[in-house]
Amino acid sequence: MGTSKVNDKFLSVRSSPHHLQRDGSINLRRKSLTRIEHFNTVVEQQKPGVTFREQAAWWLNQMRNRKRSPVAPSTIEWWESCLDNWLNPNIGDVPLAAVNNTCLKGLVEEMVARGLSPKTVKSYAQVVKQVIASAVTEHGGEVRELYPRKWDHDFIDMPVVKRKQQNTPSFTREIVTGLARWPKARERMLFIFCAATGLRIGEALGIEVKHISPDFLTISIVQKIRSGRVEQRLKSEDSFREVDLHPSVAALLREFVGDRKSGFLFCTRNGKPLWPTNIIRRHLHQALKELGYVNPITGNHKAGNHAFRRFRLTYLRNYTNCPQGLIDFWLGHAADDMSDLYDKIKDDLGFRRGKAEEVGIGFEIGPIVPNVPKSASKEAERIAA
Question: Is the pTM of the predicted complex or chain greater than 0.85?
Answer without folding.
Answer: no
